[in-house]
Amino acid sequence: MTSISVHPVIMAGGSGTRLWPLSRAQHPKQFLVLQGNQSLFQQAAQRLASLAATDIAVAPPLVVGNEEHRFLVLDQLRELKLPPATVLLEPMGRNTAPAMTLAALQATADGTDPVLVVTAADHAYVDEAAFTDALQCAVRAAADGAIITLGIAPTGPETGFGYLRCANADDGDSNAAQVVAEFVEKPDLATAQRYVADGRYYWNSGIFVVRASVWLKALRQFRPDIASATQTSWDQRTTDASFVRPDRTAFASIPSESVDYAVMERCPESPEFDIRMVPMNAGWSDLGAWDAVWEVSAKDAAGNASHGDAMLRDSRNTLVHATSRLVGVIGMDDVVVVETPDAVLVTRRTCSQDVKQIVGQLQRDGRSEHTLHRQVHRPWGWYDSIDSGSRFQVKRIMVKPGATLSLQMHHHRAEHWIVVSGTAEVTNGDQVVLLTENQSTYIPLGQSHRLSNPGKVPLEIIEVQSGSYLGEDDIVRFEDTYGRVQ
Fold first, then answer.
1. Fewest C-beta in 10 Å: which of 45, 81, 128, 464?
2. Is the same domain home to 409 and 381?
């Protein structure tokens, strides 16, 4: 038996604003651990690897993501010890249709025509076995040329999801691919109630399974402008050991459009494309807001869910997510409390969709809390801004084993470094010295310098900055392992 070649495609470019303050633009929800001990992105990669069967061969994933998150992607995949993925970096967001097209072009670059299994990086599932069964059924149908979407039987009249209507009601075969008659937009409550009562409507999960060539053909027919512009950007791509980068200028000209709007909604009316739906009963959630996180979380007898150092008394149906300190909640019902070192959110669960309004206000006010956490991840490790004043700032810095910061200098600040643990190799002007625990050094203003970790354990230091200006943009880079030289 010839195996069906499958290329999983993970869409990892979202921002997850409704899960603020835990999700931020530079560290969005797909890279957060909201369940268990793996991030949502890592869970997605593991699930897709499990699709392999005697008749299904699964290739390493294609990850389509944001340039800003490229090292988060690599680090989290490395932790899973899966075969190396191909990471396609979008210069800017252009929605899911161009992203899926990039994946299709990459998948067919060697002359093959695999089945693409396209899923978001930030969904959660209760029943992993049911997910695998449904996706394997979808793969087998797509191998014969059909375009397959996964449908979720609605558990209620949800107004936050798009729906799809099947040509006939479910015939009882849980894995049968049913003909899709129509895609419909997010309904109002009365319409959603009618959909649920009808029996032919399913939530649109946003998971698509299709041969790469079929997707490209459909896009060229329905949206030739997106197909042409994406092809141009792809043809002018650059590639290095870890990343594929479409041309930025050409990519900027691509119309921003979703897979649904660009292709899926048009397919039921076209005789050239066979579009079908495989129902999936796997406890799916898109974790679009904190209320959805509460829904999928383990709860106590009063319906409360908590993460971190939290104490709840006389409260019901409440979610508390604590990251850096003790959070106490008393006498609260149907509430969400999320604590991070630099921001706290308190909202009714029913209002959790409105968190994006706070994020919008932060953007309008020019504040940074929607973009960065106090602990900021970098390709070499992370730094945590512990304290600051008018002419000083204190940071805790972790450098991964073997990692090196850029050779740099500052016009407006001097720095003191104290090694807390590990071994530091410090370039300070013309000198290179090794420092170990409890040793320190001083970097004068204007001096070129570099910090490296030559050891096999993480290096931690305390950095004390002093000067007239302490912004992150006061950096002149001379050499950089990560391509950030100015």
1. 81
2. yes
